[in-house]
Amino acid sequence: MNYNNQEQNQGAFYEQAMADSARANSAQSTAAPSRRMAKMAKKGIDMESTISRRAFNLIMGLIILWGVGIDTLICKFYGEKLTAAFGRSWTMILIYLALVIAGFAVVHIAKNPVVSFIGYNLLVVGFGVSLAVIVERYAPAVVMEAFLVTSIVTGLMLLMGQLWQDFFKKIGAVLAIALLGVIITEVVMLLITGTYPTWISVVSAIIFSGFIGYDWAKAQEAPTTTKNAVLFATALYVDIINLFLDILRIVGDD
């Protein structure tokens, strides 16, 4: 798609603000389940009885699919309206941040898994609103290609996270440091050059692919409670959305 220089810079800064917030939230989401479980163990809290591992994984998968489905509906039916109402304004970013931060807080603080799921939905709507505006900048064929690639990569990383759990559990700190480096590089590049090189999206996509394997591996060693299913589904959902945004930018720049 063709844009003039001013529109490209505005779009880059808008997407950058959204991406950086999502990535920071992803790091928080990845670390929070482990910290939450450590506090529970220290206090001797048994929030709920465990379920089978199969049921645990099934619930995680359904929660993730629910979030992706909600975002798809928002993009499909409200994309044009949201773009017309907010465009790339900072109002949209504030709405996004308010919903995402509130969602994360409820997911991780609430003791009841039902309440945590409500928080998850707030987070999903926040991401959906921002995605709707970003996706409008790309042709439908490009969005569909990015969606398919994201689905394939996600499936492969989940499989790898299952097969090589020990490896992925060891690389969490490396991924977090790499993610911080990407965020800093993005900000510096945009401030100095006003551009967003494609190679940054490639590196970011690799990092979030690793996070998918890492979060899945960590989930497989966590107590199989419904609460933990919501926690790890949230982390995986954020990983997948970030991966989609990176792949969308890569495919859209071709």
Overall pLDDT, averaged?
84
H and E order: HHHHHHHHH
- Name the overall outline: globular
Low-pLDDT residue spans:
1-13, 40-47
- Global structural class: mainly alpha
The count of helical stretches stands at 9
Q: How can the largest sheet be summarized? A: none
Helical residues, percent: over 70%
The rounded Rg comes to 18 Å
Measure the end-to-end span.
Answer: 10 Å
Oligomer: single chain
Number of extended strands: 0
Portion in beta strands: under 5%
What does this entry look like structurally?
With 254 residues, this protein is an all-alpha fold. It contains 9 helices and no strands. The N terminus is likely disordered.
What labels would you give this structure?
mainly alpha
Layout of strands and helices, then pairs:
Blueprint: H1 5-43, H2 53-86, H3 90-109, H4 113-135, H5 140-163, H6 165-170, H7 172-192, H8 198-219, H9 226-253
Helix pairs in contact: 1-3, 1-7, 1-9, 2-4, 2-9, 3-4, 4-9, 5-8, 5-9, 7-8, 8-9
Brief digest:
With 254 residues, the protein is mostly helical. The chain has nine helices and no strands.
